[in-house]
Design brief:
With 420 residues, the chain is mainly beta. It has a domain at 102-201: Thrombin, subunit H (Beta Barrel). The chain has one helix spanning 237-241; strands at 8-12, 15-19, 28-33, 41-49, 55-61, 73-81, 87-94, 106-107, 113-117, 127-133, 139-146, 154-162, 168-175, 182-188, 194-201, 208-209, 216-217, 223-227, 229-230, 248-254, 260-267, 275-276, 283-284, 290-294, 296-297, 306-312, 318-325, 332-339, 345-351, 360-365, 369-375, 383-390, 396-402, 414-418. A hairpin with an 8-residue loop joins strand 29 and strand 30.
Length: 420
Amino acid sequence: MFAKNGVLILLFAGMIVVLPIASHAASGKVLYQFQGGVSGQQPFGEPVIDAHGNLFGKGLVSDGDIGCLPYYCEMVWELSPGKDGSWTYQVLYIFPPPTYATGSLALDAEGNVYGTTSAGGDYGQGMAFELTKSAGGGWVENALYSFGDGSSDGTVPGTMVFDSLGNLFGTTFSGGSSDTGTVFELTPNGSRGWAESVVYSFGAPPDGSGPRGPLTFDSAGNLYGTTNGGGYGGSGDCYINRFDGCGTVFELVSNGEGAWTEEILYAFKGAPQDGQWPYTGVIFDAEGNLFGTTADGGCEAIFCGTAFELSPTQGGNWGETIIKRFSGNNGTSPSNLAFSPSGDLYGAASTGGTSYYYGLIFQLKRVSGEDILYDFTGGSDGGEPDAVAFDDAGHLFGTTSYGGNGVGTAGDGVIFEGGR
């Protein structure tokens, strides 16, 4: 599905221009191979795409000359299409170390880029930022909020999403009243920047703990998400390896006056029958069902995973259906799911596949099951895909954490486009 014999890379005007191989254009291609150093490596999170077809994402920098050793620096990159089929890559901003690979980005209508860092800020516990384009063509960082201001504030923030009023909502993996994570809101506060409020603090089981994935709004403005731990109070494989539960899917309902009420829609039971440890969020289909993945569980072994559907039932409850069990050649440790504009469901498994190491891209069909669309080799095509996303025209884009300019973990990762 994707080109496996590389791309031609040219340096031009301080940016990197990637010329795709024309013979692979119909079925998909590698758009860019990360080169390490100050140009970045190990992209993570799903790319976001603006109205002009530009891709934005996050990655890491490991370079001692700019202070990014022994710890990584977090960076934001952009990949822009040209009229001749080329793509231009540039680094928008590099944050000071230390930091860790968490969270994706969000875009507003003006093309400004929003995100979080998992460390740094005034208290060393992470910050929310905005990147705006300057008159000279560069990008300027504005710090919106520093997390960790007080014992009840969240720490280690992840992906943020906009509501219909322009406010930002996100999760923190830790912090809050029980140090098991929070849901927060950032609201524009005039000339004084942005104000934060903690929407919800997670507690001890049976409540969820450690939310990692992005939040999702329904049409009524309610929030949905997952927690990596907490929930189920029984015994299972997640209790052999960890003692904070198998994870949950939750809903937060607003009363319209700033108060939110949490409901646990589903608590995962763990291996071998059920999934455990969701790392990504959930997404809605047109009928109001929720879809997501768990990074493990679903089989007798370790490093498996599931894709699941939650459907509302009578009485206000939700029922779970496991729609795919991952266990080796069909992938392991699935990441996010994404609907194409036509309503088809796609996803990435970060490991597994033919080689068992380098992951794959799959499509899930309600009648015929799973189609494996591409099996990564860990070479110039990349390895260990982290996430996928669609543009409005139905093109699939994604990143791999490794491969590209080296084999396996010796490579710095790629950005790829799939066939339509």
